[in-house]
Amino acid sequence: MTPRYVLLRLGGLVTTLLLSSMLIFSSLYLAPGSPENVIFGNRTPSPAARAAVRHQLHLDRPLPVRYWDWLTGVLHGDFGRSMVTDQSVSSRVGSGLGTTLSLVAVAAVLIAVLGLALGIAAALKPGFVDAAVNLFTSVSVAIPPFVAASILVSIFSIKLGWFPATGLPDGFWGHLRGLVMPAFSLALISCGYLARVTRNALREQLAKEHVQTAVGRGLPRRVVIRRHALRGALPPIITVIGLQIAGLFAATLIVETAFGIPGIGRLTVQSVSQKDFPVVQAVALLLVAAFVVANTVTDLLQAAVDPRLRTAGRTA
Amino acid sequence: MTATLPAGPETVPTGPARGRAGTRAGALGRRARALYSFLGPSGTIAAAVLAAMLILAVGAGLFAPYDPNQASLLDAYQGPSMAHLLGTDAIGRDVLSRLIYGSRTSLLGPALVIACSTAVGVPLALIGAWYGGLVDAGAARILDLVYALPGLLLAVITAAMFGPGLTPAVVALSIAYVPFLSRVVRAAARQQRVSPYVDALTVQGFGPWRIGARHILRNIAPMVLGQSAVAFGYALLDLAGLSYLGLAVQAPTADWGVMVSDQDSMLRGHLLPVLVPGLLVVVCVMALTVLGARIAGERPERHPLWNRRGKRAGAE
After folding, report:
1. Fewer CB in a 10 Å sphere around the end CB: N or C, chain B?
2. pLDDT tens-digit profile of B133-155?
3. Within a domain: B151
4. What residues form DSSP beta bridges with A81?
5. Cα B55 to Cα A276: distance, rounded to the nearest angstrom
6. Domain A89-315 belongs to what topology?
7. How far is CA B210 from CA B125, B139, B205, B218, in A?
8. CB contacts, 8 Å: A291 with chain B
9. Which alpha helices (H) appear in B6-94, and where do they start and end?
């Protein structure tokens, strides 16, 4: 983890963010049909009215200038105004951001705890446990969030009535209760995937000579597993956890819509169907940023954990 | 054409291909046995499931008992019966017929995605691996950028630009899946690039296109096919999710993702029209994952299925 490596990764992060912000900004204005049509709806405006609205939305200025204005605004936390509700985009996005982050956080905890536990159990107990976990992982990696959502709702909301089918109840505990099922449907695929990777990585380590040596030296099984086998299996596990959590941000689009959670995922889907471009741009940029930042953090953690990467950086 | 082929690795005689050249039926049986030994029990089941789905999709008109869009409000929300094996939905459409017709859009979409991204990604990877240098680095940078954008988000932005529909979703996902295929193919092709048989072919005056298409691609074909199958599963999940959100296949059309989004039936406790299409998505994805892993993971260098010329070369 030399400073050079960190700088390189951060440089890559900024470049990716800049390029994707350009892509997101220009794509919506290069779309067929003019953006101001959203405001007029079905009416056909007079040329003067159209020109006035275009001026108000700064559409009469060249694209690079608009991009620059937008980007400097974004860096100051100003994402413009919604074309449908005329609220400021930052306030609309801000109210959903916390909800989405807590949803992703709950799902991330579920993934890490369940995935690691299942994977370790399968690696250490060949036979029945291993087979059972294997069955679970092969099924769960094929269950998309929206199918998981309908299965969970049909069992726990409709048959048993334990959790609300849609929406978030008030208060901290209400929030948590409302987030349980969405987080589960979000986590299911990644859970199975992490369990599989953990199992394979741990198995591979357990078969290696340094683990055999540790056992031969008479170290307690617990210590061998924790300090020798798990430690060595960490790099692939960290990669998978990081990538999966990064991927959760895109999946919130589906889960928040399925459960009626007022986060930025649902806001994205709503704004897309309303063609509310400023909101779509803001949330798309936020989701991409979350995805890219999570990826970069994973890479940096990886380098911090894996001494080989560290020494490679030092000798280079 | 084949007689002058240089002794590339695919012209070495093989073990299992030694069966007697008997009757036509005998040859067919041998072929079936070879296929079975290549796929294994799980792979064979997966292939059979997918073949069944394909037959249902192609012959939907023959198998479906009713018109998928024939509504009859008097028959709404019926349970399973002899007349309607899986019951009817909110406006009295036959669920089984909708499932069978729905397999068309649900499978055609991801098939198009994978066809497009393979057609772009594999040549890109081969060219990059062959020439290396600036071409390779440039392509890798662009692919990294695409890889940084989640496919689902790209599709949602496209839906905001061009309006919801299957075509924009397929185009967006095709772009998003290019790096998924081309990264793996590039790594494999680079390994082949430096192997002695490529040098031998180059010395004999064969051009890069011919070596790439007829030798390198053929040697890595199992891996490409396996990766495509896995990508097909992911694309199916993404497209079904987009249809669920109302951004890909549009509502009256029968489609699995659209069918799962029928929240009203579910909240009335009428679960079959929602859960069965979800189950079909899961089964398809599982089958594709199993089959893909089997095809790619085995990597049978000398398998009869990938070595049609083996016997003749041995006789020479």
Report:
1. N
2. 888 888 888 887 788 778 888 89
3. yes
4. A88
5. 42
6. MetI-like fold (1.10.3720)
7. 15, 22, 10, 11
8. 148-150, 153
9. 24-58, 60-63
Q: Would you list the DSSP string of B145-201?
A: HHHTS-HHHHHHHHHHHH-SSHHHHHHHHHHHHHHHHHHHHHHHHHHHHTSHHHHHH
Cross-chain residue pair B245–A32, CB shorter than 8 Å: no
CA B141 from chain center: how many Å? Answer: 26
Q: How far apart are CA B193 and CA B133, in angstroms?
A: 14
Please report whether residue B25 resides in a domain: no
CATH code, B197 = 1.10.3720.10
Residue B287 lies in a domain: yes
Cβ contact (<8 Å) for A280 and B157?
Answer: yes
User: Cα separation of B152 and A279, whole Å?
Assistant: 17
CB contact under 8 A, A253 and B281: no
Angle at A285 between CA A284 and CA A289, to 5 degrees: 120
Instruction: Name the least confident of A66-70, A231-235, B78-82, B105-109.
Output: B78-82
Q: Of the candidates A147, A251, A288, which has its C-beta nearest B260's C-beta? A: A147
d(C-alpha B20, C-alpha B215), whole Å:
28
Write down the pTM of the prediction.
0.82
The alpha carbon of residue A246 is apart from the nearest alpha carbon of chain B, in Å, by 9
Whether residue B174 has pLDDT greater than 90:
yes
Q: How many domains, chain B?
A: 1
Q: Do B245 and A251 touch (CB under 8 A)?
A: no
B156 touches chain A (CB under 8 A): yes
Partners of B289 on chain A (C-beta within 8 Å) are 138, 141-142
Residue B187 lies in a domain: yes
CA pair distance B215, B211, nearest whole angstrom? 5
In angstroms, what separates the C-alpha of A286 from chain B's closest C-alpha?
Answer: 11
Closest CA to B96 of B224, B241, B273: B273
- Residue B162's domain spans which residues? 32-58+104-253+283-310
For chain A, the domains span 89-315
Place of tokens 């334990």: A162
Backbone φ and ψ for B94, nearest 5 degrees, come out as -70, 120
